[in-house]
Amino acid sequence: MKLANNFGIPIGSLGTGKIDFFNDLTIGNATIMNNWSNPLRVIRGFHIVDLSTSMFLQGNPARNSEIKFEVKIPKSIEANALFPEVEYEIKNPDFTIKVYSPFVPNDLKDSSLPLIVFNIKGKGIIAISFPNLTGSRRWGRVNYKIEGKVNGVLMTNLKALQSDPAYGEIFLGCQGCHSYVGYRYWIPALKEGMTEDVSIFNLDKLKEGEGINRYYIKPYAREEIGGIVWKEIDGEENFYLTWFFNGRPGYYPYGHYYENWFQSAVDVAEYALKRKPKVELDNTQDWINDAVRNSMYVLTYSWLTKDGRLAVYEDPQISLLMNTIGGMTWDSLSFALLEYFPELVKKMDEHFGNFIIDGEVPHDLGEESIENPIYGASYPYSWNDLGPTWILMIYRDYKFTNDLSFLKRNYNKMKEVIDWLIKKDEDNDGIPDSKGGFDNSYDGTYMYGTSSYIGSLFLCALKAFIESSKILSYDYSKYEEILNKAKSSLESLWNGRYFINWKYKDQKNESCLNSQLLGEFWCNLLGLGNVIDEDKIKTALKYIYEHNGKASKYCLVNSVNPDGSIDESTDQMKSCWPRISFAIASHMIMKGMINEGIEIARKEWETISSRYPYNQPSKINAFNGEHFGLPYYIGSLSIYLVKYAIKNTPHR
To answer: What InterPro entries is this protein classified in (predicted)?
Structure first.
């Protein structure tokens, strides 16, 4: 995917933070200093220069300078992104620069390295600079010259406390390169204001300062320092940017997974030099792989703790909740992760079970915490879709990994959750009652009584529990009776075209909710078979395609009225939720509606990729396709479900 000029691609590994790289080879929005929810938006002092021609290999080197300056830049730069890498084709001078962080399925160590690699191909003398960002304040910052297996500049802060999120160090270097530690890049301009000093990018000047082994920040309020490394190349060379932030701030006392393997940023660079870890992901050149790979960006908003627990922000700016489940959030993201790191997913899904109280499943693991869960997220109602979601996640993890001991360990909790849900059925129709008070993932929309969304999820979860009971040889007879009763209640919502949203006594909401059969999607994916008759499923999916799908030229609308117009009763109903849209598209594909499912998915991806591919929202405005709702949303990777469905569905 070509990078547009209005967004950058985040480059970083699991749990380490990231740096955004823009189409002109400038950077911003760094979160490598344990600052996932407070990115450093403006980064000065980063440059890549060909010293042999005095040419900056960037389109706008003065991007973040208060006072602009003029330097020589290439004739053209074309950036192509496929997370977690971006490749820059530079013309006049001619260089190819690939920037990436390693990602190796089933190798958690190499996929969680605090490392960005600059692979540079061409001929010249390449210099790279990077600022010292250690410590939350400038004072105390110091740069050291490092010579060894990897030469370069080590940047740290002698006054930062371990409670400071930015307590740690950064290293920039390469094998056999030269280094300059005293780069004072933020200086007064000639007349007024401050500007970046780029005059240092002169081979003679750099050589003059090459003998300095240590440089610390002077007592000037606006001074900023960085390091520079350079090397003559004729062919190909790797430069390494590594970091090691081992502080213990109050909101993140867990430490990083990389602390198990390394003692410093230099250790990481030496490991990268020896190991040469790569990006080992599907490189197929088609729109669906482009969508899946680039939607993996959301993994840069993850924690991977020293003890091996993975958590992803629901969003890093507003909610700050970790591993939110329900409505295809962590539950959709973890489908892809099951392919790459199954043990990690099982560990976190089982971790949820530690916080189940009398059958109630939490909404998440906490607000910037993995130990202080929130239980409904909408006071004062407990949610009806969290329990079914967790049961389906547990059964899925068993089904995809064949780990019988995992299923057995979690069975009693599954039973506890099912029994809690059954108690929520006050009208004895077999389906947990919706109370209308934002008691599910549609937490801005009222649903009452018997809901097709809740009923479908509950029925599939009940089926998964019954199947688990069979596998483990436990009695399940009473649950089959409830299953049959619930099925009849769900079918009472059928109007001949689709299952209506909900009914309660003599009240009905006859809108067509696109997630009315989300449980059937789960059952299909998990090989549990249909709960509802096949012809009704296909008829409802066809109606959703023809009405919810056609109501907006940008995306699959959450809800339409019986006349096919967009349901504007709430912001949630009149919007599109990509995580739900892609799940429904994959359900269509699995049910033989291959062209229809691909059309729905591709339309939504085109809206996303042209506007906000690395900041996918929780909601899309169905009327104009604009960003709507929570940013950088956890469910971004649900497009993986479409790729999975295409791969595993026989083409007819």
So the answer is: 6-hairpin_glycosidase_sf, 6hp_glycosidase-like_sf, GH116_catalytic, GH116_N, Non-lysos_glucosylceramidase
Whole-number Å distance between alpha carbons of 237 and 251: 39
* Cβ atoms 461, 485 nearer than 8 A: no
DSSP 547: I
What integer is the mean pLDDT of 18-24? 98
Amino acid identity of 18? Answer: K
* Residue 650's pLDDT band (cuts 50, 70, 90): confident
Task: Give, in order, the Cα–Cα distances in Å from 421 to each of 102, 364, 386, 540.
Answer: 43, 18, 10, 26
C-alpha–C-alpha distance, residues 470 and 399, integer Å: 14
Which structural domains are found in the chain, ordered by start? 8-275 (2.70.98), 291-648 (1.50.10.10)
Q: How far apart are CA 549 and CA 581, in angstroms?
A: 9
Q: What is the pLDDT of residues 234-293, one digit of tens each?
A: 999 999 999 999 999 999 999 999 999 999 999 999 999 999 999 999 999 999 999 999
The partner residues of 332 in beta bridges, in order of sequence, read: none
pLDDT tens sequence across 102-130? 999 999 999 999 999 999 999 999 999 99
pTM equals 0.97
Q: Is 178 exposed, middle or buried (0-12, 13-18, 19+ CB in 10 A)?
A: buried
Q: In angstroms, rounded to a whole number, what is the distance separating the alpha carbons of residues 618 and 634? A: 8
- Which amino acid is it at 455? G
Q: Is 366 left (phi over 0), alpha (psi -120 to 50) or beta?
A: left
| Four-residue CA torsion sign, 463, 467, 472, 475 | positive
Dihedral sign, CA of 350, 343, 240, 156?
A: positive
Sheet containing 27-30: which strands, arranged edge to edge?
9-11, 19-21, 27-30, 40-42
DSSP string over 314-382 = S-TTTT-BBS--SSSSHHHHHHHHHHH-HHHHHHHHHHHHTT-BTTBPPSSSBBT-SSB--SSSBTTBP
